[in-house]
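Worked problem 6 (solution included).
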Amino acid sequence: MPFSRLLTVRQHFPDRGIHDIPAAISRELASSGIMDPLPAGARVAIGVGSRGIANLAMIVRSVVENFKARGFRPFIFPAMGSHGAATAEGQASVLAHYGIHETGVGCPVISALDVVSLGKTEDGIEAFMDRNAFEAGGVFLIGRVKWHTDFAGKIESGLFKMMAIGLGKFAGAQRYHTYAYRLGLEHVIRSVGRQVLKSGKILGGLAILEDANHKTAQLTAVRVGEMEQKEEELLALAKSWMGRIPMPLNILILDEIGKNFSGAGMDTKVVNRSVMGDYNPWDTAPVIDRIYLRGLSQHSYGNGVGVGLADVIHDRLLRAIDWTPTQINSLTASTPSAIRTPIHFPSDRECLEKIWPCCGHLEQRDVTIGWIANSLELGLMRLTENLRPQIEANSNLEILGEAEEFSFDQDGNLAGILESAAVAH
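Solution. The predicted structure is:
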């Protein structure tokens, strides 16, 4: 008995995209007064992270141009912990992939792992800062504010986390996550961030918010004195825009995972998993019984963090993993469960045939399946036809074309979702 046929479905989210990003950045920086305390000709360290942020090169270049227009001398540095295999060359390479190099953004990119100590928090956590950034006249951060994959709080991922863990490089990230195992990551982010602010080096930052279509939806210049409070407000707004899987599923198929999609390889609050191995820990996401992963993004540089959150994976994903950066990243974050090796088989057909009986159904045709490209792109998906009543009841969902059978090739494999859907939309 085959699976229920597949429907191609468009999920419609509000379009909040900014049409003129450079103009928006210029307005924000001009009105914020962030540059005013800098002496003429000062060197400014601009910290940039490693996530797959939309329009990142344009955003960074625009910030650089604004600082240069005021007569300052900006340079870029990677504000990353253990990403890029925790090497200076690896982190520069990650930025270069996103177009963040001297030619692309108009200023030098200086990548190094040397840090300086900024003293200890009340909990005894020693704070660190990238040495090149510390020796500059001021530090400005560019980062996306969004929910974190490991915990829920009023501050999660954003400028404050970048200021704490990103500025601390590998030396800091390793220590901070160790403390976070006992104290909680939000507590560590806040306390280390406050210690970094005491250095007097932070100028502020540019907070990037994206809508559910992965478009740049808001750009906010955040002054140093309001960073903590402002980030709480921005995170609440970002969460309200979050894209979600629209219904519970027996099996969720993802074409790819990768660090370019999420710090955990796939957004845990979309797929409803915990990096510690818990099933369905988030009450803001639908219940997902089983997860099947088909591949690893080439832009993850072999980092397979997140593979351990799946129930079954394709052999091609396992072959694509470079275990050196994967282990460094996972162990630095104290999440060894996120890189456990699930059961794996050499074809899509075999993976699905092995896992469907583990979903609580006796008949294969009753298994409900959702198929997405990755946890970031939720606008186009494929859903099995046995979900039609739920699809038609949701005004944000639109069925495109007719239902189709699962189309396996002679090796038992599927094409990617975009090729498989074969819809000219």
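Discussion: The mean pLDDT is 93.
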